[in-house]
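Duplicate of #3305? Posting structure anyway:
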């Protein structure tokens, strides 16, 4: 029999996560799973309310969560909520903790990316990161853009195709595992603030369609005099 203890099952946002399990606890015993209140357990299930505080700024929330779960003795799973803000913090807590798994409440039936970020890697090249049930990234090839010179950088996505342009020219063509249906969460860093942009941003534009190579090169030609590139 596998013994599972749920930490604070009726606390705030933990309730909708764990209520379904509690309702079928008798059925779970038929599958050798026992939900216990005892401190003698094999695994602890930890809900979002015990490691994410959405009233705090993201980094403070991560630190608060890490401090909370550091008190747990034994193996534990993290159960995240359903929105992208909590997912951002949950992933950072998971990465920096001893949690066995991070489980997402919602299921990604359509395999669409729901959370994304754009950043420049330590190799000084363009990347795009996304979550579609697991963390993935594309990019990392092409031109180094950290050379103390102004550059026009364009991420242009359509479905699973993601093209990256530097100074009006196609630099990388990548293919994502999933299309994009969610929100853009971070531009200029990874989730939780990792790999922050160490530079200046002079002009930013966002479009609801993938720009063509001609549109991007024309835009670059119009802007280059302004920035001396």
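Output from current build:
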């Amino acid at each position: 029999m596998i013994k599972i203890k749920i930490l604070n099952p009726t606390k705030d946002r933990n309730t909708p996560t764990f209520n379904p399990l509690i309702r079928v606890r008798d059925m779970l015993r038929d599958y050798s799973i026992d939900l216990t209140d005892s401190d003698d357990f094999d695994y602890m299930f930890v809900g979002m309310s015990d490691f994410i505080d959405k009233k705090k700024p993201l980094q403070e929330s991560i630190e608060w969560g890490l401090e909370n779960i550091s008190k747990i003795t034994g193996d534990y799973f993290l159960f995240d909520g359903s929105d992208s803000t909590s997912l951002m913090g949950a992933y950072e807590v998971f990465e920096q903790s001893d949690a066995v798994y991070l489980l997402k409440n919602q299921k990604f039936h359509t395999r669409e990316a729901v959370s994304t970020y754009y950043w420049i890697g330590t190799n000084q090249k363009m990347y795009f990161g996304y979550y579609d049930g697991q963390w993935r990234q594309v990019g990392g090839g092409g031109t180094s853009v950290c050379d103390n010179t102004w550059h026009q950088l364009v991420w242009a996505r359509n479905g699973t195709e993601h093209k990256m342009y530097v100074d009006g020219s196609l630099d990388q063509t990548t293919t994502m595992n999933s299309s994009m249906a969610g929100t853009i969460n971070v531009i200029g860093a990874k989730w939780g603030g990792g790999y922050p942009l160490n530079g200046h941003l002079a002009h930013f534009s966002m479009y609801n369609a993938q720009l063509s190579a001609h549109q991007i090169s024309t835009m670059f030609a119009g802007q280059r005099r302004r920035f001396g590139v």
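Confirmed duplicate; merging threads. The chain has two domains: 2-104, 112-227. Residues 6 and 45 are 5 Å apart (CA to CA).
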